[in-house]
Amino acid sequence: MTLTSNRPARAAAPLLALAAVMAATGGCRGSRSEDPPVHLQQNMDFQERGDAQEYNGFFADGRVMRKPPQGTVAVGFLKDDDHLYRGRNLDGTLADALPPSMKLDEKLLNRGEARYNIYCAPCHGDTGHGDGPVTRRGGGFSVQPANLHMARLLPESLGYYFHVATNGKGKMRGYKAQIPVEDRWAIAAWVRTLQVSHTAKASDIPAGNAPSPSAAAPTDTKKGAAQ
Ligand code: HEC
After folding, report:
1. Of 17, 44, 145, 221, which one has the greatest count of Cβ atoms within 10 A?
2. Among the listed residues 110, 206, 90, the one whose alpha carbon sits nearest the alpha carbon of residue 159
3. What is the number of other CB atoms lying within 10 angstroms of the CB of residue 163?
4. Which of 142, 171, 172 to mutate for ligand 1's pocket (most ligand atoms within 8 Å of CB)?
5. For 129-163, how does the pLDDT look when each residue is reduced to its tens digit (9 = 90+)?
6. Residues contacting ligand 1 via CB (< 6 Å)
């Protein structure tokens, strides 16, 4: 009898001790306290180190974040390829070709067309005639977007279109912040493609590539008949 009546009391003793410890250290879930929480398992939560934006008396200006020494260039950001990044030849003139690291192929022109349609066509129009949708809305432009087929622009080098897309011209702003460098070259190639589509003569088509008359699209046939 004595044995059995003692058993619950003995089992409760450690539980009571644990509850006392928890009450002293943690309090109850949901209860408020002005004190910082007890951080039993520290892991690496508290370290002697400077965190971003923190004050640190070690430096005279008190800032933990240091400025890189003047002239520092992040890896991969040197941009010393003048042709690729500035559209220039070594003598400083505008280059009239794609940078050697890029290849003129169907993929590049498709890319150029897609990027042109996003970034340039709203003003210059799908075909480059300077009649994009923004010119028909919102009260008009003080300066009309250029017609990319105008005689003055046709002799310009490929690098010129890259340069204008990069830095802007007159009232047009540059797009180097929005359009990656190789996409700006792809756009330049597409602008040239739009121009050539209006000026090319049959004799410009390389021998062996001329479409046979039977392969002409129906619209071409119609145009031909009207001429
Ligand atoms: C927000 C409208 C707008 C967008 C978008 C725009 N342009 Fe223009 N662009 C203009 C205007 C306006 C002019 C005429 C600027 C002037 O004469 O002051 C112009 C002029 C030009 C010219 C002629 C420069 C010269 O020598 O007179 C070229 C080339 C050109 N843009 C290419 C582009 C290309 C490539 C893109 C896309 C990356 C583009 N533009 C995007 C408005 C735009």
Report:
1. 145
2. 90
3. 21
4. 172
5. 999 999 888 666 678 999 999 999 999 999 999 99
6. 119-120, 122-124, 143, 145-146, 148, 153, 161, 164-165, 169-172, 175, 187, 191
